[in-house]
Amino acid sequence: MAKPDASFAIKRIYEEPVDDDGCRVLVDRLWPRGVSKDRARLELWLKEVAPSPPLRQEFAHMQERFEDFRAQYEDELAGNPAVDQLRELAAQHGKVTLLYAARDPDVNHARVLLEFLAGVGPGK
């Protein structure tokens, strides 16, 4: 069970790490270009929570495909044990920052994951 003050946030991995990030977890399946492992300051690279390769390729970060992508990704997350791993990290650390590389802060899988973890969003 998560601490009452346990929380999740999302942030582009290209932004500078700050102490308030808590436990930093990369949730992309591919390593982001131009970011060294030292600069990333990760606690964990959790590839398994990212969208499946076919779903990621079908979506291709196209806004017009986002709602279909969201529904399919939420279906993947519903049966994904990596989601429980993120919840356990939140219980241990209080805050988990989900790191992603996509340019759009609203049309990306990390946003869907954040809303899924919070139990909000169109599919909830």
Explain how this protein is built.
- With 124 residues, the chain is of the alpha/beta class.
- Helices cover 38% and strands 15% of the residues.
- Helix 2 (53-59) runs antiparallel to helix 3.
Topology, please?
Elements: E1 7-12, E2 23-26, H1 37-40, E3 44-45, H2 53-59, H3 66-78, H4 81-93, E4 95-100, H5 109-118
Helix pairs in contact: 2-3, 3-5
Order of helices and strands: EEHEHHHEH
Helix content: 25-40%
Number of helices in the DSSP assignment: 5
By helix and strand content, what is the structural category? alpha/beta
Low-confidence stretches: none
The beta-strand count equals 4
Question: Residue-averaged pLDDT, rounded?
Answer: 91
Rounded to the nearest angstrom, the radius of gyration is: 14 Å
Q: What keywords describe this structure?
A:
alpha/beta; four-stranded parallel beta sheet; 4 strands; single chain; 124 residues; globular
Q: Care to give the gist of this entry?
A:
The protein is α/β, with parallel strands linked by helices and 124 residues long. The chain has five helices and four strands.
